Every structure is written in C-alpha cells, then in structure tokens.
Amino acid sequence: MTDSFGVRYLTAVASADYDTLTEMYADDVVFYTPFRRGDTGVAFIKGFLAAFHRAHPGLTASLHDEFSNADGTKVTLRMSIRWHNTGPFMTFPPTGSEGVESEIHTFRLRDGRIVEQWVGHNTLGLTRQQLTDWQMPLPQDEQDPAPAIVTVQATPVEVG
C-alpha cells in the first residue's frame, strides 16, 4: 500500500525531507499564505520550510482530513502543527510562544506535482505572533489570481 498524497506531504514537511518535497513540487509552483502571496519555485518552498524549522525545532504535525477531486488535480488537507518558537524566523527574533496551529492547505496538481498551494489558518496563535510580536506586514494585493467559478452579489434584505 502506498501512502496518500497527504501522508507523503505531511511526513516530508514535518521531517524537512527536501528530496521528497522536490519530487512533490513542480519547478514553477506558486505559494500563498496570509503573509506570502505568489512566491514561486521549489527553492522558495524549501527555504521557507527551513526557516520555519529553525524557528520551531521539534515541531509535530498531524493530518486530520484529506480530500481530492475525482481526477486528482486538486487536493485539500486539514492539518495541525504543534509549535514552539525558540529560534529566529527569517529576520524575526524568537518569542518563546507556543501553541497548536490548525491549517487548511489546498493544492492544485499538474502531472501529480504541486503547481499551486494555498495555506489558510484556522487558529490564530501563530498568526498573533506574526502580527503582534513580529509586526509582519500584510500583503497589499489580496485579489485571488484564479478565475472565479461563480460570483454572487448580495441583495439587501430587510430583517424584521
């Protein structure tokens, strides 16, 4: 039995297995988080992950849900990361903060490799550290680059 996409991904991320990550990501991958919008390339992904591991050595990651569409070109994972910030993250000093971050990762695949990844935070401990302690700037361009499947304009409704 082979491991699912989610098990392979989570294992590679948690163990900083750069060889497996290089196999999983396409060279032209585009990466989106609340603080990083549209960074590209496997080198960026590996550098970002290395910085995250330096900042949170010994982190533990768990996979809770995994969904994919019928043709396997889109995958969504719900995962959590137990973290303790004892090292610097990029230019930011360690804070000593710790917690469990619940995240949803959505992937678009081409030929079985990740070409686009979106990360959404469901808990805010790590986000609080990024916004408050480190005062990380938020991206200015918040428009989703993908075409909308449908757009619906709200109609004002009287309540009462």
Q: Could you give the topology of this structure?
A:
Blueprint: H1 5-14, H2 18-24, E1 25-32, E2 37-40, H3 42-55, E3 60-68, E4 74-84, E5 98-110, E6 113-121, H4 125-133
Task: Write structural notes for this entry.
The chain is of the alpha+beta class and 160 residues long. It has one domain (5-133): Nuclear Transport Factor 2, Chain: A (Roll), CATH 3.10.450.50. It is built from 4 helices and 6 strands. The chain has helices spanning 5-14, 18-24, 42-55, 125-133, and strands at 25-32, 37-40, 60-68, 74-84, 98-110, 113-121. A 6-stranded mixed β-sheet has the order 2-1-6-5-4-3. A hairpin with a 5-residue loop joins strand 3 (60-68) and strand 4. Helix 1 (5-14) runs antiparallel to helix 2 (18-24). One of its GO terms (biological process) is polyketide metabolic process. This is Putative ester cyclase.
Features:
single chain, 160 residues, alpha+beta, Nuclear Transport Factor 2, Chain: A, 4 helices, globular, Putative ester cyclase, Cyclase_SnoaL-like, NTF2-like_dom_sf
Second rung of CATH, namely the architecture:
Roll
> Largest sheet at a glance?
6 strands, mixed
Radius of gyration: 17 Å
Here the CATH topology equals Nuclear Transport Factor 2, Chain: A
